[in-house]
Amino acid sequence: MKREGAANPQRRRKPQQARASARRGRFLEVAAHLIAQSGYDAVTMTAIAENAQASIGTLYDYFPDKPALALALLARYTEEADAHWKALLTPARLRSKAVLADVFIEGILDFVRQRPAYLALLDAPIAYARTKSARRPLRRTIARAFKRLHPEMPAKQAVLVAEIIVTLIKSFLAVYRRAAARDRAQVEAEFRRLLRLYLVDQFKATPIRKH
Hints:
Order of helices and strands: HHHHHHHHH
Number of domains: 2
Structural class: mainly alpha
CATH architecture of the largest domain: Orthogonal Bundle
Oligomer: single chain
Distance between the termini: 64 Å
CATH topology of the largest domain: Tetracycline Repressor, domain 2
Number of helices: 9
Largest sheet: none
Radius of gyration: 22 Å
Helix content: over 70%
Low-confidence stretches: 1-7, 9-13, 206-211
CATH class of the largest domain: Mainly Alpha
Mean pLDDT: 86
Number of strands: 0
């Protein structure tokens, strides 16, 4: 029997969990801001704690070291990327091969511009890898977009094309982030041309359906 006046453990836990989640999110936001400004290597856990107005001990309660924090930030960005592409690859946007190529290039650039720490984290000396099941939703989203434009394309081929597109986007980011600022427009143009050529080859046998 619960004693009269005893606190409900569930009622205590929810505010504590909410505060912990908010504090964890604050640490990630501060880390992202500092990494975007100074790069991964230059940012210290002490600086993150100070800018979050917390003690270093509290920060270590949430993240045992800087790589763990960086991995958590990358995991957040990856989840956001899945939602980002799902919103972009809608039937209304995909009316032609050229438009699809633009969606991929402009889509990834919009994503990294909104998250300036993302490119810096891709160069960080940390090992980040997603499981096969975690990678599957994005490939399915892209494969469905191809199937809408090219209904005759076998499902297995659509999945392969999606895998190739993801690989090309990763390659684009690798070249783009290492390029000097003055050269990035040319890198963008070259990869946009590459994607258009690849998509033309994929769709040349079947007319694009109008939506």
